[in-house]
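input
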Amino acid sequence: MQITKLTPDEARAVSEMVARACGYFRAIVDQFRAMARDLIETVRHLGEYLRRLGITPAAAGPSRPAWVSPYGPPQRRRR
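output
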């Protein structure tokens, strides 16, 4: 493989292509950001709606203390 320097015209063309690609990526990121904001707002409204209906989400956690295992007491060790 031989490494050569770019001519000024080639360097200019590469620079323009990189700038164009950065613009495309920036537009994509902006669209994803807007989509994420809309999704967050929708989930927030859904949570408010479920709370008004009296439905608590599963993420609210179990109705037992954290130290109580759902599987019962620990097994005794055999020696």
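quick obs: DSSP finds one helix and no strands in the chain.
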